[in-house]
Request: fold
Amino acid sequence: MGLQKNIITLTTDFGSRDYFSGGMKGVILGINPDAKLVDISHEIASHDIWGAAYIIDAAYRYFPQFTIHVVVVDPGVGSTRRPILAMTDKHYFIAPDNGVLSFIYNDPGFSRVLHLTAGHYFLPTTGSTFDARDIFAPAAAWLSRGVPVDKFGDEITDFVRFNIPVPSRGSDKEISGEVVYIDKFGNCITNISISDMGDINSARDARISAGGTVVEGVSAFYASGEKGNPGAVVNGNGFIEIFINQGDARKTLGLKRGEKVRVVLK
Reply:
């Protein structure tokens, strides 16, 4: 056995109504009773691979080194899609090979991906609908107990990844991006960071437009404007998001993921 890695996070689209996330936890604790389980989210929209990819990217870097992250949004469960183990220099990720780790592959410390094939680390099963319990959970548990990564399978290089949109500059004063995620409050998070805009002083005077909405300047916080008015703010991860003060920008402004966003610096 190698180094133990006792923290395991779970990110799924299972919700809380059914036994799915609980079943995963039972398997993990049955193999490693000392595992520390952390729910990042079980409220990813059903089959929303992109949403899960964004959520795990936003969360994982705040966990201690050697944390194991299990990410299961898996429309292809039971099919020929592969179960995989991806690694960076600080974290491990167990997931279906469907692009859900695409953001992780952009981590500067990303190293490699293994195809999980060592069936003796899986649960025996006669069904094909619950790989989260039968494959991903036990693999994470055995990894947390110190089983060396190379025992789980062989390295692959043809893993599935989708393109992550990046902002572009039309000029020194103009940045084009898009909405990449919409949170529970209807805040529309873009892929334009404060560093793309130069600094906070430049952002304060910028004009941000998305759909038919134009916002003048980046606010210091959500409540800086009138209730019900649109605004823009730098979120906790350093990206521009468009919001409605005490409202829902998605519904009120009709914005959606993929909506083009334009920033003009003054």
Notes: The radius of gyration is 20 Å. The longest helix spans residues 131-144. The helical segments are 20-31, 49-59, 131-144, 200-204, 249-253.
